[in-house]
Design brief:
There is one protein chain. The protein has 118 residues and is of the alpha+beta class. The chain contains two helices and five strands. The chain has a three-stranded mixed β-sheet with strand order 2-1-3, covered by helices on one side. A two-stranded antiparallel sheet has the order 4-5. The relative contact order is 0.18.
């Protein structure tokens, strides 16, 4: 069993239903990369979404069908600092203009004898 971020990331993926593969430490990378077998891009995106962290997605012709490889980079945030399943919190809509109160004045506003509608 590998300790540290690689082990934690493997545990996160297996808890989410992915099958564990070989886990180890690799040479340092600047950017996290998720590699997938040809035709398995959707699986790579599901892994990225589950991790809730940024990653480059690329084809790796050495992988067998149904396989992905996750290579953690310096940009990979530690647990507790990742998004929930890659989802970003929805932004609250900006407040609209205040609701116009009905006029209590019975006299209509006119311009050159034409009634104005507000």
């Amino acid at each position: 069993e590998v300790d540290g971020m690689a082990g934690d990331t493997s545990d996160q993926l297996t808890t989410a239903g992915f099958q564990a593969g070989r886990v180890g430490n690799a040479a340092p990378l600047t950017t996290t990369v998720i590699r997938h077998a040809a035709g398995d891009e959707a699986a790579a995106h599901r892994v990225a979404s589950t991790l809730g962290a940024p990653a480059e997605i690329e084809v790796d012709p050495t992988l067998t069908a149904g396989s992905v490889a996750v290579l953690l980079g310096d940009d990979f945030p530690p647990p507790g600092q990742r998004g929930a399943g890659g989802a970003q919190p929805a932004a609250k809509p900006a407040p609209g203009p205040p609701e116009q109160q009905p006029s209590t004045d019975d006299d209509a506003i006119t311009a050159d004898g034409i009634t104005c509608v507000n």
